[in-house]
Task: structure prediction
Amino acid sequence: RTGLIPGVCLSGTAKHTMAMTVGHASAAVRCAPVVAKARGARVSTSFSSRMPQPRPILRMTPRGNDRAARLVVRAEETVGERVMNAAGSPEEEAAGLASVRAALEAKGDCPPCDDQTALWFLRDRKMDAEAAAEKLEEFLRWRADLGVITDDDIKPSIDAGAAYVHPHLDKEGRAVIVVEIAKHIIKDRDLEVSKKHAVHAVEQCLKMMEDAPNGSGAIYAVWDMRDFSGANADLDLAKFCILDVFRKYYPKRLNQVAAIDSPWAFKPVWAILKPIIGKYSSVVQFVKADDVLKNFEPGKEPKCLTTGAGRG
Result:
């Protein structure tokens, strides 16, 4: 018998296709525990598990299909007051993760990547494994070129005290980046150092959430806008953080932004910034300190929200 199934003879093409299918299924089985860990649930690794039909908005686009198919999926995304990552079924995610892994391995020289990061990019691209692998590869190469970032590399920015990672997660398990905008003086900052500090802060948040049992994987940005002036209006850094860091390289990580006690002087700056960030401008909420304090356990609030003029 020449077929892969006893008693059935298959052509060479059919055998090749079936072999590839079995190979992908095997890879998906190996990836299933990773997905289960990320979802906090158990996943069957049996070949007999019935694979569900993909949902319309969580479909995988086969390689070679019209690129417009992926654009339709992406166009369906909406952004409200929060940015939320997508999710597929456990089987979809396991199969998609296997496909992403295979695509990266096929490159040969692609920098290494852990499964949790690969799964996050897969969800960001709504289970489109080809698009996820493409975006993930771009991130991995960019991050490898950037190199290791140490506290010494960004010491001037750290010492300014304008931006830092809050030591506690909020009630939703989100890591928090606090920006005390009045301390950020454009003429005193080195843009490249500030950019590295932004990347370092994001990765510090991800590590904190990975180590915490209730870590959500999402980041909450708290902007203390008191005493804002034109000397603090750093559009170059803002564009890098929004367009590069949180849209391109760490997608769907920035869940929500609270701009606290924003003064009138910020209005013309926001008028410039808002069209740049487009639909994601809806995640920026202009609020009072008390609105943000509700998101923290007593004693775990950012100090800037409870001390100083008009606070406490």
Q: What stands out?
A: The first strand starts at residue 163 and ends at 165. Residues 1-23, 41-76 have pLDDT under 50 and may be disordered. The chain has ten helices and five strands.
